[in-house]
Each structure stands twice: as structure tokens, then as C-alpha cells.
Specification:
Layout lengths: L1 H25 L11 H56 L8 H22 L14 H14 L7 H10 L4 H14 L16 H19 L6 H12 L4 H7 L1
Length: 251
């Protein structure tokens, strides 16, 4: 903004100087021995006021518009950094019965890893004929493990919740078989007095966490005045706030 103002000021000054020189030359005011006719100055003033003055007024308007744009960009930038700050604060305030802050994500990722192994064990009970032409992949297993961690191990006691979880995977054979295996899986995880844990699920924590994360990225993406390079920078700045365990769960 300041650089543009300086450029316009220099260009305006040069333009005014060149115009003054040409005007006085055409009217013989620069010839030696000639006295400057006072009426020439009157004509000069009229031209400056009517033409050059209009140009300078236009430049002033352009500078004002640029100032407003700069102010709007500054407000947008401050808002983005506020959202990033809120994300960091939200992460630090997350807590369970045993951990708080980023360590919660460490626990969740470790439990998902254990659930993944349990899902792999459940795969053994899936009839081979049901997977022909549609083999179970590692991503399928990880998807099921995450959904169980998200909604909790108590889903087998709630048919509505079971149907909801099943729907996320299209009710594939692996998901159905894993739900059948949940009673035996529950015995391997202690129930901490029905507080936030693998039994009740982490949807309260992760749901809020991911909604805010999405809204922040969505806000950055919808700022039309920001070029792609700036959007990329702000999004990378947000990503830099994520710990390794947060990124694992995000994946």
C-alpha cells in the first residue's frame, strides 16, 4: 500500500513538472527577454484545476479504495489467526478421565491401533465367499476401527446407533462381523466409570474438534480477496498446529 502511494506520488509530480514545462514553452514564457503574461498563469491555473486536479482526485480515490482493501485484508488475516488460536485453545482444553490436551489424541490413536488389530481378528470370521470380488482392504479395517472408537463400544446395546455406524460403511460384512465381536472386545478395555473413554466413544470430543477445524479451513477457502498462495500459507499454518497424533486421527 505504501509502495503504491509513493509510486503514484512520484508519477504525479513528474507529470505535473512535464506539463508545466510544455505549457510554459508553448506560451513563450521560457523565452529569454520575454516577460510572462499574467493571463498565462490564469490559464495555467484553470488547466491544473480542471484537468490535473481531476487526475489527482482520481488518484486519491484509487488510494482510498486500496486503503479500504488493505484494511479488509488485515481484518481477514486477523480473523484467520484468531480461528487458529481458538483451535489451539480447544485442543488444550480437551480432557478425558485420565488425560488432557494433546495427550488425549495420543490415547485415542493408541486405542484405534488396538481396535485395528481386533478388527483384523474379526476378519477371520468373515466367510470367504462374502468377500469374493470385493476384498477387505486395510482402509476398510481402519475405517471400521475409527468408527468404533468414535461411537464407542456400547453401540451393540443400542440398535439405532448400531444401524447408524453400520450405514457409514454401507453395512459391509466386516462392519457387521465386528459389531458381533464387540462383546469380546469390550473385555479388553476397562470401563472408566462411564466417563469419556472407548466404551462411550469420543464423538463429543472429536465431533467438536473436527467441526471447528473444518470451519476454519472453509473460512480461509471462501475469502475471495485472498490469492491461492495466501490461502495455502494460512492452511499450512493451521496444519502446523496439529500434533503427529492429531494428524493420525485426521487421516
Amino acid at each position: 500500500m505504501r509502495k503504491l502511494g509513493k509510486i503514484l506520488l512520484i508519477c504525479g509530480t513528474l507529470l505535473l513538472g512535464v506539463f508545466t514545462f510544455i505549457f510554459l514553452s508553448f506560451n513563450g514564457a521560457l523565452d529569454k527577454g520575454n516577460n510572462i503574461d499574467p493571463s498565462i498563469w490564469g490559464q495555467y491555473g484553470d488547466i491544473i484545476g480542471g484537468v490535473i486536479g481531476t487526475i489527482f482526485s482520481l488518484v486519491g480515490v484509487l488510494l482510498l479504495v486500496e486503503t479500504l482493501r488493505g484494511s479488509d485484508y488485515s481484518q481477514t488475516e486477523n480473523r484467520i489467526f484468531e480461528l487458529i488460536k481458538f483451535h489451539k485453545e480447544n485442543t488444550n482444553e480437551i480432557s478425558t478421565i485420565s488425560e488432557m490436551g494433546r495427550l488425549v489424541f495420543k490415547n485415542i490413536s493408541e486405542e484405534i491401533a488396538i481396535l485395528y488389530q481386533e478388527v483384523c481378528n474379526c476378519e477371520c470370521f468373515v466367510p470367504e465367499e462374502e468377500t469374493q470380488g470385493n476384498p477387505i482392504t486395510k482402509y476398510d479395517k481402519l475405517d471400521v476401527a475409527y468408527l468404533i472408537a468414535f461411537f464407542g463400544l456400547d453401540i451393540n446395546g443400542n440398535q439405532t446407533l448400531t444401524d447408524k455406524v453400520c450405514a457409514f460403511t454401507g453395512c459391509n460384512t466386516l462392519m457387521k462381523k465386528t459389531i458381533e465381536c464387540i462383546p469380546s472386545i469390550k473385555n479388553k478395555f476397562p470401563n472408566r466409570d462411564n466417563k469419556v473413554n472407548i466404551h462411550t466413544g469420543y464423538q463429543v470430543i472429536l465431533g467438536h474438534y473436527f467441526r471447528h477445524l473444518f470451519q476454519t479451513v472453509n473460512y480461509i477457502n471462501n475469502q475471495k480477496q485472498l490469492p491461492y498462495s495466501k490461502k495455502y500459507f494460512f492452511t499450512k499454518t493451521l496444519r502446523a498446529q496439529l500434533s503427529t497424533y492429531e494428524q493420525i486421527i485426521f487421516f
